[in-house]
Amino acid sequence: MLPFGPQRVNIGVRAYAPVMDKRLYDAFWGTSLRATTALHRVVHKVSGGRIWRRFPGGGVIVWVTTLGRKSGEWRTNPLLSVQVDGDWIITGSNAGQAKVPGWVFNAREHSEGYVLIDDQAWSCRFVEVEGDDRDALYQRLIDIWKSYEMYAENAGRYIPVFRIALGDSIAKAAIPS
User: Domain 4-172 carries which CATH code?
Assistant: First the structure.
């Protein structure tokens, strides 16, 4: 039996895609996301952060560093973002998987962290946004990466949105690893 049903859904880019079984969707996108993140880490390290700073559509890759709520260790993740009113906006979409990404729990538990944007580092505060403001900011993310619309349709959960409020500019070496 194929994992695709007979119906098709609009994925928001004037195209239609077959509906995929949720377990298969999570397995496919989870594997793709892990592979892309691992590749992004290697490219970032080898290029000194000079390559893959931008996404098609205008999105900027930011590297957020959060303190692990269970481990107490600092964790760094590359995330697609958009700048709105001086703050950077990120989301815990996890490519539309049912599982909330770990950095979201870390940011909720410890709102203070670090961010690297275009080779400049800052201390920062992660502020979860809710209600109409959250919806408007999520739409801004959709505007730069149409797949966020598909992620919202497939996640089967609330997708959190955060503002990164920049603090002091710091040396890159000051970001814990």
Answer: 2.30.110.10
